[in-house]
Amino acid sequence: MKLWYEGSAKAWTEALPIGNGRLGAMVFGGVYQERLQLNDDTLWSGSPKDWNNSKAKEVLPKVRKLINEGKYEEADLLCKEMLGPYTQNYLPLSDLNITFQHDGLPTYYERSLDISRGIAHVEYEIDSVRFTREVFSSYPDQVVVMKIGTSEKGKLSFSATLKSLLPNEISTQGNVFTLKGICPENSEPGYYTSEARYGSLEETNAIRFESQLCVQANDGTVHIDDNGITVKETTEAILYFSAATSFNGFDKSPGKEGRDPSKISTAYLNGALNKSYEELFNSHVEDVQELMSRVELNLGSLDKKMDLPTEKRIIEYGANDPGLVELLFQYGRYLMVASSRPGTQPANLQGIWNDMLKPPWSSNWTLNINAEMNYWPAETCNLSECHEPLLTFIEELAENGKKTAEINYGTRGWTAHHNADIWRQSAPVGAYGHGDPVWAFWPLGAAWLSQHPWQHYLFTQNIEFLKSKAYPVMKEAALFCLDWLLEDENGYLVTSPSTSPEHKFRTDDGQLAAVSAASTMDLSLIWDLFTNCISAANILEDDTSFREELEEARAKLHPLQVGKYGQLQEWSKDFEDEDRYHRHVSHLYGVFPGNQLTEQNTPELYTAARKSLELRGDEGTGWSLAWKMNLWARFKDGDHVFVFVSNLLKLVKEDRVIREGGGVYPNLFDAHPPFQIDGNFGFTAGVAEMLVQSHTDSIELLPALPSQWKTGFIRGLKARGGFEISLAWNNGIVTEASILSQFGNRCTLTMKNVVIQADCKAIETTQNENGTISFNTASGQTYIIIPKQ
Regarding the domain with residue range 701-787, which homologous superfamily does it belong to in the CATH classification? Predict the structure, then answer.
């Protein structure tokens, strides 16, 4: 549960992340110059605006006509007229720079991050004097705190100041150093324009922000002026950093209707100053440990390898170090705890950590895989409350999405497209024609996002949440799909125009195109949404006529097709791929994260989907490797999953150039490259999927265990139906399983090649010939399952 290094960070992807869901910091750990690069999750450019395109409604039938005529390239071109503006940028807040007055060179140095407690630590020795720093971002107290100490009285002297890349002004009041600034009123992605438009500090429509710094020293002297805070000849000092923005909701102008960032930041700072360091530290550690301690994983790790710095472990052992796999698994859980808490924004493409005014892809929410992948481990890995920011985001996006559905397409319900930002942009991006429809035009974002509230219900069994939150969002997304579908010449319901996100096909004349009818991903998303809505309506015993309408429409969906290579077709026609090894595997949604295609229910399509995955190959970007990892877990091929574990645990040194490669940076951030956090979350979800699956009618234990993990245990994974699973295995066979039933539902268990008996207090136990066992449970009761050897 610890990352550690023998030197300070030389690059941002070597710095160590801390966060409380709202405030994030990258800790560099320099001996002479410490840098904390700081973020606030609500610091974005722009403000609410009208991004809908009424012209799209007029263009739509013309695009559909071209598709019917097989004029795909012309349809692509015309689709550009259906696009809207680009989203805004997520922005860096400020830097806390600390300059130390050290003489001499360090003879000892260690920098570490304890992910079980959320503490970054720096320790070094100069001239026999030991210097230490510990820093954390507190969720209970909403401040970043750093304690700096030395082993000899009066040997610590330093200066600290705040800087920002954004327009700002500095002031001091009492013992507080303050930086006030503003965000751009408009700043579009760096791949479109390098420009940004600012208002003035006195009057702007954009977000304002304020950062505050205060230092307390137990001896020596403290001086503050416009250059910063200077501390001389102290033994211990504590730095408190507080920040806030004027963001007041996705639908309110932060300039005209914003909150007062000064008032909020001051309240956070004063609250922290009124407590002792021990109180702040203990409440922070207790908060993080409560979440992190819920799940424990052991893959037979060798303690000797823990003596190696993290970067060297990656280089020398990679996936052959079980302890490193355990660490990367838990690191994904830690990053979720640090970047997504109740009341915050959901984790974006980079979680909450960003040091650029024009970050890759605006560091926004990319809805055709990346935002959803961020939350794949939330439920399975026992962090259900960390799912809340995304669930709230979906509700808010749906409000804007209703207007987009009506204005752009003349439909009911709600829709969303490729990208979204803090203002919940729901229309397609692309600067009204600059973007390529292969990624800019994709109106199925609502269908995919609606899987998340449904999954939250399946794991938590919260019927009130299903009734008041999940089902209304799901139903409105389904209404859009009902209106978006149209009947083809064979009587099937299809989507048109339709894309398979970010991947083109080759037409009969060898040209590339993106827009056609009825991509497999569209059909799979809609099948999944309709099926989930039907199940929800049955549970709620409501909406009978709507349920019947969905059942009728689902039965008429264009069937999925098997192509000439035995593969699951990506499009309704058996087109050739633009890139056989393309990073997206969108047509396999029905295998994972969906459950439409299973070995038991759809064996032919399941086999074809596996063939498609084989054709895609074992390489890819970081997040693509993670998706393939989860897919191979669903195909129950543990040794093939391990290939992707190995591919992800390869070191990538600082490289912020966009390219394909995959791996991890020295700080274990996922490398696309550049950094995208979805690969971290996808990896964590993939490990959980290897050990426990619950997407069918039973909970399967060790469905995709690789031969390398001969012995181990997992404690605290969650399964659908409200069960918490712990299990141990030896030589690849379950030796004991513990099932905690949280809501008293009937439990069905399956283990491969093992006949099991129920050594528990279960009643009405049944067992079939293949070893599947089913038993009633009582709420709060734990059941021990011991297989017959």
Answer: Golgi alpha-mannosidase II (2.60.40.1180)
